[in-house]
Design a protein that fits this description.
The chain has 128 residues and is mainly beta. The protein is built from one helix and eight strands. Helices cover 3% and strands 46% of the residues. The strands form two sheets. Strands 1, 2, 4, 5, 6 and 7 form a six-stranded antiparallel beta sheet that branches.
Length: 128
């Protein structure tokens, strides 16, 4: 294995399309393609007015989210928080989270330490 890897983000598989959520946007998990061993991260692009299809929380993994472009809302447990370009958000492991894009869409980079199997998907988290 090399001491570095260079890869274009757009060359990483879009899991939203793969699992039938492509109408909401795109989500990529480049960790394996980059051969990263201890760091996990994702890149999400939500189309205007769309919500990320899955809410989740962790047991161990703290996450840092950076809004690269656009704006939107983060639901963090029972609280709604507005986000805009270049906002940074730290989320403690047990906090349930889900995102909704504003009128220009929402592009997020989310990263933190990788803990295998440390994610719980939540059903009916964000009800209207």
């Amino acid at each position: 294995m090399s001491d570095y890897t260079i890869l274009n983000l757009d060359d990483v598989e879009d899991f939203a399309a793969k699992y039938g959520f492509g109408e909401a946007g795109e989500v990529r998990f480049p960790r394996e393609a980059l051969a990263a061993e201890h760091t996990g991260f994702s890149h999400m692009r939500l189309r205007a007015g769309r919500r990320s299809p899955v809410a989740h929380r962790h047991e161990k993994a703290e996450e840092i989210c950076i809004v690269l472009a656009g704006s939107g809302t983060a639901k963090l447990d029972d609280e709604l928080r507005e986000l805009q370009t270049h906002d940074m958000l730290r989320i403690a492991p047990p906090v349930a989270r889900q995102f909704e894009a504003g009128p220009q869409g929402l592009e997020l980079l989310v990263f933190g330490a990788r803990h295998e199997g440390d994610g719980e998907q939540l059903e009916d988290f964000w009800s209207e």
